[in-house]
């Protein structure tokens, strides 16, 4: 294996970064309190982000009065849930799959226990409510404190990843650190931070508990809609159905995720920890948050039409991803539709000196659209938003 100080140059990170990294500091300091703006838009301004931003600009103190630490009870409950999720990730069995080769040539094992993790997590959330120990709308009713707890957790995770990357990196020749502490906090150091041989921090954070959180948050806000208004709208049901199509598909075909940019190319820093742990579960569930407070019910024909559009978007995403994976898994032997797969062979050399190859698909849906998988997700997302107007 190559052990060269120039490895960081090959990874594109050794550059005059210190002056420019100052720009990351206000981003890290501001995004945490600004999470109040989108929730304030729903609770105080009938969903108007413009009014929420205007209020913040006029009186920042009034908008940010609660943006400090979560209440003790919510903080403890959040910590217990994360600990429980970590135990599930550790003990649940699953087949082992190999990831993509890292820049230094490592091929890492991943335990594919996502679907069982998702099922166990949802049951564990529903069971206490069924036994009368808590309420299903507990998360929704304490949403502000939950957001704060998630922010605190993201910062703690960022610091943990920073210290680990500096002191005990799992694969130091894959590191993407710089001379700037600020840059390393923001962008991250380790590409694949692990505890032991297989406990992958990146997979647990973005590929386990946050993906599961989407479904749990939706359930909680649906329960809040029932609590406030006495019924659940068809629009709420359709939004949850579309989102769970993505979630179940993600866990049922999670080998796809091992080839994603997030796993292969993004180091674990604040950008990843906060983006996956705060931005992702709060922004991606805005539809159910809004519908809980504003029980919009569309005409049945409109609801069916928008739901069908969302399902069509999901099918575009699924087919495009399946075509790409099948061709790469079979090294181009797999047919796409009724025709032989057309692709571009893209060769590259990892820093251990081994020449490797990736196939860029040029047939099927990929013949007509540059990123059909992204297009499908956009259509599905627009459909979920369309159910809220």
Automatic annotation (TrEMBL):
Q: Give the subcellular location.
A: Membrane
Question: Which protein family is named in the record?
Answer: Belongs to the ERG4/ERG24 family.
What Gene Ontology molecular-function terms does this entry list? Answer: 7-dehydrocholesterol reductase activity
The membrane topology term of the UniProt record is: Multi-pass membrane protein
Which GO biological-process labels does this protein carry?
brassinosteroid biosynthetic process; cholesterol biosynthetic process
Gene Ontology CC, one term: endoplasmic reticulum membrane
This protein's major location comes to membrane
Query: Does the record carry DNA damage as a key word?
Result: no
Annotated InterPro entries: ERG24_DHCR-like (IPR001171)
The protein in question is named 7-dehydrocholesterol reductase
EC number(s) for this protein? 1.3.1.21
A Pfam family cross-referenced in the UniProt record is ERG4_ERG24
Which of UniProt's keywords are assigned here? Cholesterol biosynthesis, Cholesterol metabolism, Lipid biosynthesis, Lipid metabolism, Membrane, NADP, Oxidoreductase, Steroid biosynthesis, Steroid metabolism, Sterol biosynthesis, Sterol metabolism, Transmembrane, Transmembrane helix
């Amino acid at each position: 294996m190559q052990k060269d100080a120039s490895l960081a140059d090959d990874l594109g990170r050794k550059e005059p970064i210190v002056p420019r990294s100052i720009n990351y500091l206000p981003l890290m300091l501001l995004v945490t309190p600004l999470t109040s703006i989108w929730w304030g838009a729903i609770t105080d301004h009938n969903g108007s982000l413009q009014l929420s931003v205007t209020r913040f600009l006029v009186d920042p103190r009034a908008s940010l009065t609660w943006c400090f630490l979560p209440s003790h009870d919510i903080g403890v409950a959040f910590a217990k849930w994360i600990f429980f999720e970590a135990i599930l990730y550790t003990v649940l069995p699953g087949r082992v799959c190999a990831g993509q080769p890292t820049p230094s040539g490592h091929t890492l094992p991943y335990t594919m226990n996502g679907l069982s993790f998702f099922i166990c997590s949802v049951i564990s959330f529903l069971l206490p409510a069924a036994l009368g120990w808590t309420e299903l709308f507990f998360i929704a009713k304490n949403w502000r404190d939950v957001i704060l707890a998630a922010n605190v957790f993201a910062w703690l995770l960022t610091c943990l990843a920073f210290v680990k990357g500096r002191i005990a990196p799992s694969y130091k020749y894959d590191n993407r650190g710089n001379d700037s502490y600020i840059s390393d906090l923001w962008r991250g150091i380790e590409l694949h931070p692990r505890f032991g041989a297989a406990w992958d921090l990146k997979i647990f954070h973005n590929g386990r508990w946050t993906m599961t959180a989407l479904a749990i948050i939706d359930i909680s806000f649906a329960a809040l809609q029932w609590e406030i208004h006495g019924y659940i709208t068809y629009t709420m049901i359709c939004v949850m159905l579309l989102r769970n199509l993505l979630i179940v598909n993600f866990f049922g075909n999670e080998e796809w995720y091992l080839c994603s940019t997030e796993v292969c190319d993004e180091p674990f820093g604040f950008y990843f920890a906060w983006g996956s742990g705060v931005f992702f579960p709060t922004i991606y569930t805005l539809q159910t948050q809004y519908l809980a407070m504003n029980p919009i019910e569309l005409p049945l024909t409109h609801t069916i039409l928008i739901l069908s559009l969302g399902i069509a978007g999901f099918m575009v995403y699924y087919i495009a991803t399946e075509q790409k994976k099948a061709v790469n898994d079979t090294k181009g032997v797999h047919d796409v539709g009724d025709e032989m797969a057309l692709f571009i062979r893209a060769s590259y050399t990892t820093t251990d000196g081994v020449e490797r190859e990736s196939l860029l698909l040029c047939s099927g849906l990929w013949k007509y659209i540059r990123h059909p998988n992204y297009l499908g997700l956009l259509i599905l997302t627009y459909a979920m938003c369309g159910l809220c107007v």
